[in-house]
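Help! Submission page says 'invalid entity' but I think these are all valid:
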Amino acid sequence: MPLMSSFPSAISLTRRRALIGGAGVAAGLLLPSLARAQTRLQVTEGNVAPLPIAIPNFVPGTPSDGEVSNGVAQVITNNLKRSGLFAPIDQAAFIEKITNIDSAPQFANWKSINAQALVTGRMTRQGDGRLKAEFRLWDVASGQQLTGQQYFTSPEYWRRIAHIISDQIYERLTGEKGYFDSRVVFVDESGPAQRRVKRLALMDQDGANVRYLTRGSDLVLTPRFSPSTQEITYMEFGQGDPRVYLFNIETGQREIVGNFPGMSFSPRFSPDGQRIIMSLQQGGNSNLFVMDLRSKSTTRLTDTPAIDTSPSYSPDAARICFESDRGGKPQIYIMPAGGGAAQRISFGEGSYSTPVWSPRGDYIAFTKQGGGQFAIGIMKPDGSGERILTSGFHNEGPTFAPNGRVVMFFRDPGGGGGPSLFTVDISGRNELKVPTPGYASDPAWSPLLS
Amino acid sequence: MKVDKTLIASVALHVLVIGWGLVSFSARSLEAPPPESMPVDIISADQLSKVTAGSKTGEKDKPKPLVEKVAEAKPVDDTAGKITEKPEVKTEAAPEPPPKPVEKPVEKKPDPPKPVAKHEPKDEPKPVEKKPDPPKVDPIAEALKKEEAKKPKPKHQAKAAPPKPPEPKRERVFDESKIAALLDKRDPTRHAATGETLNSTSSLGAPRGTAATLSQSELDALRARLTKLWNVQAGTEHPEELIVDIRIRLTPDKRLAAPPEIVSRGSSPRYRAAADAAMRAVLQAQPYDMLRPATYDQWKDMIVTFDPRQMFNG
């Protein structure tokens, strides 16, 4: 075995092993090729950071499209930045100016500014007056196009196009559904604290395009978006008892839901938008009822000497979560959608209210009160994994983004001011104020528009 | 005087009591047998890998000579003859081994039982194992030959093999190890000679030593690089669905020889996004400077697993 002892290189060692093992010469030479693939490395820690992405202004198809081209890039930049998962790179750092989106960019120019992804696009006014939007999403490291789309729309809807493109980028890079092409209905509050005027208002999820749905002569509360249609249900204090109303955004039509004796409140749609579940007052108590919007038939779901309220369907419409004080303090319960035995799921200190089921089904968000604080939190539908997302003087009324990743709520700092809207990731990170014209409360997120 | 007696009695009593107390307490005292001292050296992972590695300049401490087969003691003439053989082997690295292994298994079969009875168990099992192996060798070798015939890899191997034979020559010329190798010449001859007992332990390192395997520090450096470049989404839910295995093949100049290949399976959009993120990390980690050329065999083809579960517990 002189060869073996002469030089302990990698090859001779592996050969020795092979020879010692009694392997033949051929195997001795070839075994390393088997062993080669067996070097395995486990990487279990990564860099949890927003993904650096470059979004240069879109290329104007004609000289008059410059403004909208820049606007689309800005809306996309703002959306992705607010999501907390992306870090758009300042355009001032860009080395290359994109002038043609039909050829591949010089990826070295984008690598050098640490961009991991690059969005290029073009806005072109068509001969028929419509606006054509095109975009491409590039992986800078591999030089691959990850996705690309083109859309046609009326020029006034350019912001929606920007939201749709944002969703495409978000979905491709995170693997989760987007939520940018959605709206939020909320209660706009104006005037002095003594005579506060409350109006129903609607806006894009980024705070743009605010419009008012009611005039403010009557008090409105708890607006809720239909998960499947462009309808809103809410409670309004009119001349008599508070009533649940249905409002169609497209037509502006408004109607009372059912005609019940006493108060009806805290309405919410079923996932298919065909039913409204709500609380009806019965003496000093309230019980849950569900009304079919087409047949107008009403079904009682609970019959207890307690206050049952704030019902919310699971996305598969099989179960309902709601708030009840049947155990003493308000807590969250779950029961079958058709009624039946309810199971308490909240057991922490303090009281729990305004439960709302995530459209993804994995969490229930709630308001938790205790120790002089109001907190917004989430828990799994079996009551485990409670996570407080934010806590303070007054936080209330959580509502989920259509993808279940973000929760919006309103916060009243106390003092002479008024409430404002905030969003927070369900991980508890990235709390952001949502821009509104004035004070705002009771937000409700719409489903995706497209 | 009476007072003195009582005093004496008192003193005597105290002495008795205290004396008894001393005895009894000392009897009760906890026995703390001195622990067997255990020499402990604290070494780094890197040092460990060096310690376990065989080295060219390794000591020849082993009591037993390296013996591959048991045979009757032979006169000095044979060793002299083998000394002359050795240098030839060194220069012609690859070709020579073939004949010897073939001969050995045949010869070993009759012998081994005796050494088993006579000597240490550690050494024995190995020779015992050797016997059954030869039959296995052929199918593997054949299978491998077939594989190689199919794949274009032989080029890599061909490239990899040639550079190495020259290396030993250089070392003999330049290094201290050269001196060692010169001095060693007689030792290896003994190894090649037959002896009373089988001893497969070479003098240049443990038979299963990790001489040219990736050191922990190399792997750590590689892992650190990938950790830094692996961009993970905050608030990831169900990370167990996002474990990505990537096969990377590298050239000797520490760059990717081919596009990384995702070898794990998954089809959800979330998985695809996770695979893209892993791919970006692997692409950006080029060149893989932390890897040593000496261990090229170990890192030219690796599977890297990106597993986010630990990051999102709870």
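Support: the input was valid. A stray whitespace character was the problem, and the output above is from the cleaned input. Chain B has a mean pLDDT of 65.
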